[in-house]
Every structure is written in C-alpha cells, then in structure tokens.
Design brief:
Layout lengths: L2 E2 L12 E6 L5 E5 L10 E5 L4 E5 L3 H9 L24 H9 L7
Parallel strand pairs: 1-5
Antiparallel strand pairs: 2-3, 3-4, 4-5
C-alpha cells in the first residue's frame, strides 16, 4: 500500500517520483519531479516503518545535511542511526568493500 501523509494526499502521483536513495531500514528517498526546474524538486520519503509518504520542502543536499545534523523536528526516516553523527562522510559501496577485503573497517 502506498499512502501519503494527510497533508500531501492527492497532491502527487507515484509517476512523478524519481528515486535517488534508500536507507538501511528500506525507506525510499525520492524527488518529486512536477516542477520543470530540478532545483525546485522537494524530497519525498516513503517510510517503511509508517507505510506512508512524507514530503520535505527542500532539495536532497539540504535534506541530508539536516538529517545528519539532527535538525528535523522528527526523524524523517525509519532508521535513526544517521542522526547526530559527529563526522559524517560518504563512502561508496565499492570503496567500503575494498577496505573490508583488505581487512580494514572502513568506518573506523
């Protein structure tokens, strides 16, 4: 079932979503592509925990920065492990795998 949060119900169609990420808790992170200007695409999150879509009126970079800084009033994803990380960084899956193969924990 794909339900929208009450404030967004009926405003967006699934066809207007472009997936750009997912969380370890199987949440889906998307842009809503209804505006012709990609710089104005808000972020939509399908929370597997709530079985509901929510919309955040910002771009991907701002969304992720606020997530890592723990600046959302309520965590926008089902997994809170990304909140408040003192030194967050991006590590591509290939780089992480290569580090593990060498016997190193890439996150330490």
């Amino acid at each position: 079932m794909n339900r929208w949060a009450p404030a967004d119900r009926g405003r967006y169609r699934l066809e207007d979503l472009l997936i750009w990420g997912e969380t370890g808790a199987a949440d889906t992170l998307c842009w809503i592509t209804t505006d012709p200007d990609p710089d104005r695409w808000p972020v939509a999150v399908y929370s597997r925990g709530d079985l509901e879509w929510s919309v955040y009126p910002c771009g991907m970079a701002e969304f992720l920065l606020k997530l890592l800084r723990d600046e959302w009033p309520q965590c926008p994803i089902s997994d809170s492990s990304l909140q408040g990380i003192p030194d967050p960084r991006f590590l591509h899956n290939k780089d992480a795998a290569a580090s593990w193969e060498l016997g190193n924990n890439p996150w330490e």
